[in-house]
Specification:
Oligomer: heterotrimer
Radius of gyration of chain A: 26 Å
Number of strands of chain A: 0
Chains: A mainly alpha (310), B alpha/beta (260), C mainly alpha (282)
Number of helices of chain A: 14
Number of helices of chain B: 8
Number of strands of chain B: 9
Distance between the termini of chain A: 15 Å
CATH class of the largest domain in chain B: Alpha Beta
Number of domains of chain B: 2
CATH architecture of the largest domain in chain B: 3-Layer(aba) Sandwich
Helix content of chain A: over 70%
Distance between the termini of chain B: 40 Å
Largest interface: A-C, 63 and 64 residues
CATH topology of the largest domain in chain B: Rossmann fold
Radius of gyration of chain B: 18 Å
Strand order of the largest sheet of chain B: 5-6-7-3-8-9
Strand content of chain B: 15-25%
Helix content of chain B: 25-40%
Largest sheet of chain A: none
CATH class of the largest domain in chain A: Mainly Alpha
Number of domains of chain A: 2
Order of helices and strands of chain B: EEEHEHEHHHEHEHEEH
Shape of chain A: elongated
Largest sheet of chain B: 6 strands, mixed
């Protein structure tokens, strides 16, 4: 908690930088608006403005800089604009009882969340199962582990359009399943690696002790390896859920997506409404933050009840 | 005594902890003269390491005065007046033994030629010649500790401060290193401050033994050793040796509380 | 049908072979350690081929590996062009710029514990976000060509490398720092001789993560606009125009590029951090 002050200080500094950056980023758009409104703009021809740098334009037209802070289609929206758009498409709609309309980010966030959670569940189960297999079977360890590592170096995004096409060909409706698969793909590796490290973390002394009790393999697993792996597991679950969210959004980006936060980003790009993109991005960030925080909370509670954390 | 190398008067060090203040050092009065070999012995918490660290300006006292070579300890530190040997060898695994010894020399700005000459000389002193190109993990614990001592001897410092350097080693290696340390001391004539848990080690090595006790950290006894400078290992069986050891043991018992 | 049977028999045979190798006395040798996963991979490919041929799967849905190999051989010029655009110009340049920026930032904020305490949690948070969503915005700012792809990569790799470097710099233990104090070493000496070498394992951890992110960033950014070349471009248009075998050939190139990139960084890591306990084999 003593980090609150530095964190706030950095956030404030970033906000200030952001505000300052809006002016040069939006100057051309501002001058276009001023021009169309009939005001005097130096230089008068849009083509000439294109040639000049943003700084020169700003210095030549100081009165019009402020326009850059309220454009409809800004290159760089101000934090207030983003917050406004976010509110318009979430809170305000909820207040009007239209939270689940096709234009509401709550609806799209829900779609994204569903695939993320399914992918996360699938990835976690596969990751944990894989980890147990790797720790208990040398064949699996030597054949699977290298491929697990390689699988992560293969950019799943290259496979994403393929997975979507394949699943529709096989007759699966909608994008839910392929998105969950892509999510699971990105999520299982951190869980696998973390679980393997955790299951292997008990020292030789502790394993030997159980052997002196003639404990069976299952008992050793449940009483020693599994509890010992909890801290590692939670760390990788947090990484995993963030990865699952990225996977879902990646699945929503290829052409043709209509629902989900990734789709909103895509549509915002196609329709040239940058505010929609920014709002969807921030919604995704907030979603990621909530998910990781929830897991962090679960981690603290579980570890405290297990006595592993002060 | 000509002006002492280390002079402590009413030295106090109190740590503020969550469980209240801890009096690590209380009213320490001590003088260490040039060329002396002084051992500090006592149970955990008696302040022996803390005192050594104060001399090295790694801790700051909260009361009293402490001078090293006539200066404030931090001044002596910046003048590179001492070499410090920690309990663990602490060699950099990414540097060979040679380069590890070169570390302080690089920082202090010795020329390449000087560095090479000093490294060879000091490897010879600790009998590690020929191991210069090896890496720390390729050496045994005893050899690593010798390399750490070599590192502390490489630059010109009149004072050598050692904090339980042989604690993690087995008995025979320890004996051997004790002998070597005495030889080194005879050859280099440095002033040595040595912290240890072991009574025989303290009596064998030192010209002066400082017995300390905890809560608060204070000096219980200062014993000037009558043993001659030349000491073969079997001096440990002589009655004079045993007498001093008894005195040390009594001093320790007096300060030890049994409700730990 | 016979293909399917062959594939299954091969699978069982290969598994048995792997099992015996894993438990044999040669299991520690590098030959066996490479052979087992290779055999596993070959089995997957054989299964794929058997599956496609045996069940008569349409090449529009899932082409057989042999078909893909054929297309691969026939289209090396397109594949090379795409590779240059996406991997070399987009991913690699973005990776280098992002890594250098992250190092510089880490060292700059290192001097101030205040900044470090503020920036580290934020950096960790941002590293968990779907930064990939920024791609359309950056394409909008930097144009269609490789610069916007490199920009996406820079943003994606910056935070993981920054966070790992900062953590690595913090990891030096108290005794080592005390030793430096006894030498009256200044900030710069301590940084260069102690903290940076000690931080290298962490830094490489970040770099390895960054290699996978770099490729992902470059490819996804191309879904949002690209001149008529690049792996992302080829994949998204190929899916649309049903040249699925070309798409799979591109995926194969992506897989090889990703693995090679990661392998290169891992190799550098092994050479530079040869001293770390995890690399020593005794």
């Amino acid at each position: 908690m003593r980090n609150i002050l530095p964190i706030l200080a950095v956030l404030v500094a970033l906000a200030v930088l952001w505000y300052a950056a809006v002016a040069p980023m939006n100057i051309r758009g501002a001058l276009d608006v001023a021009d169309r409104g009939g005001a005097e703009v130096i230089p008068a021809e849009p083509r000439d403005r294109f040639e000049q740098s943003a700084w020169r334009l700003m210095m030549a037209n100081p009165d019009h800089i402020a326009l850059g802070y309220s454009l409809d289609r800004p290159r760089l929206p101000t934090p207030v604009q983003v917050a406004d758009e976010l509110w318009n498409t979430t809170g305000e709609m909820a207040l009007r009882g239209r939270a689940m309309s096709k234009r509401s980010l709550i609806y799209h966030g829900w779609i994204t969340l569903q695939s993320t959670l399914w992918g996360f569940a699938l990835g976690t189960v596969l990751g944990m199962a894989g980890a147990i297999a790797i720790v208990y079977s040398r064949v699996v360890d030597m054949s699977l582990m290298p491929w697990a590592i390689i699988s992560q170096t293969v950019p799943i995004v290259a496979l994403a359009p393929m997975i979507i096409v394949l699943s529709s060909q096989v007759g699966i409706e909608g994008r839910g399943v392929p998105k969950a698969i892509i999510s699971a793909y990105l999520c299982y590796f951190p869980v696998l690696v973390g679980m393997v490290k955790g299951l292997r973390s008990p020292g030789a002394a502790q394993l030997d002790l159980l052997r002196t009790y003639s404990a069976s393999g299952v008992q050793a697993f449940l009483k020693l390896r599994l509890p010992a792996s909890m801290p590692y597991l939670f760390t990788s679950l947090k990484i995993g859920i963030a990865a699952a969210l990225v996977g879902t959004i990646v699945g929503e980006l290829p052409t043709g997506a209509i629902s989900g936060l990734g789709a909103r980003i895509l549509i915002g790009d196609q329709f040239g409404t940058p505010l929609a993109i920014w709002a969807a991005l921030f919604a995704a960030a907030i979603l990621a933050g909530i998910l990781v925080t929830l897991l962090d909370l679960m981690q603290r509670i579980t570890l405290r009840r297990m006595g592993m954390q002060a | 005594m000509t002006s002492p190398v280390v002079s402590a008067t009413s030295l106090d060090l109190t740590f503020q902890t969550n469980d209240g203040p801890v009096h690590a050092l209380s009213g320490i009065d001590l003088e260490i003269g040039k060329g002396e070999f002084v051992s500090f012995i006592g149970p955990s918490g008696c302040g022996k390491t803390t005192f050594l660290r104060c001399i090295a300006a790694l801790e700051a006292p909260t009361g009293g005065t402490l001078t090293v070579n006539g200066m404030r300890p931090d001044g002596a530190r910046r003048a590179r007046a001492y070499g410090y040997v920690f309990q663990a060898a602490g060699l950099y695994p990414w540097r060979s033994i040679e380069k590890n010894i070169a570390l302080p020399l690089e920082i202090m700005g010795y020329s390449r030629a000087e560095q090479a000459e000093r490294i060879n000389r000091v490897l010879d002193l600790v009998e590690l010649s020929g191991f210069g190109k090896k890496y720390p993990w390729q050496l045994s614990g005893g050899m690593q500790q010798r390399a750490s001592i070599a590192r502390a001897l490489a630059f010109d410092a009149d004072i050598l401060l050692m904090d339980e350097p042989f604690g993690a080693l087995d008995e025979i290696v320890r004996d051997h290193l004790n002998e070597q340390l005495l030889e080194l001391w005879a050859r280099t004539e440095k002033t040595i401050g040595f912290v240890t848990h072991s009574i025989p080690e303290a009596v064998y090595l030192s010209t002066k033994i400082v017995v300390m006790s905890p809560r608060p950290g204070r000096i219980t006894d200062v014993i000037d050793s009558p043993l001659p400078k030349e000491r073969p290992l079997d001096i440990r069986d002589t009655p004079e040796f045993l007498e001093i050891a008894h005195r040390v043991r009594d001093g320790l018992r007096a300060g030890h509380a049994y409700d730990d | 049908m016979s293909w399917l049977v062959f594939a299954l028999v091969f699978w069982i045979g290969a598994w048995a072979l792997n099992a015996s190798l894993a438990n044999s006395r040669w299991r520690g040798t590098i030959g066996v350690r490479v052979l087992i996963p290779v055999l596993f991979g070959v089995t997957l490919i054989v299964l794929w081929e058997g599956f496609v041929r045996g069940l008569g799967v349409s090449p529009v849905i899932l082409p057989a590996p042999s078909t893909v190999a054929g297309t691969f051989a026939a289209s090396t010029d397109i594949l090379w062009e795409d590779f240059r655009q996406t991997v070399l110009k987009g991913a690699l340049s973005g990776f280098v710029i992002g890594a250098l920026a992250a190092f510089a930032t880490a060292i700059l904020i290192d001097r101030s514990t205040f900044l470090t305490r503020g920036l580290l949690p934020i950096g960790n948070f941002v590293a968990a976000l779907p930064i990939i969503g920024i791609a359309p915005i950056l394409v909008n700012w930097f144009g269609f060509d490789w610069q916007s792809k490199a920009a996406v990569v820079v943003v994606m790799v910056f935070f993981p490398i920054l966070v790992n470097t900062v953590q690595g710099l913090r990891e030096t233990d108290a005794m080592q720092r005390d030793l430096m104090r006894t030498y009256a070493a200044g900030y710069l000496d301590t940084l260069i001789k102690l903290r940076l070498p000690a931080a290298l394992p962490f830094i490489f951890n970040g770099l390895k993560i960054a290699t996978t992110l770099a490729l992902i960033g470059a490819i996804v950014a191309e879904y949002f606009g690209s001149p008529t070349r690049g792996m992302g471009f080829r994949i998204s248009t190929g899916v649309g125009s049903l040249s699925i075998d070309l798409v799979w050939a591109e995926i194969a190139v992506a897989a090889m590029a990703g693995t090679a990139f990661y392998g290169l960084v891992a190799w550098m890591e092994r050479r530079v951090t040869f001293w770390h306990p995890s690399h020593r084999r005794n």
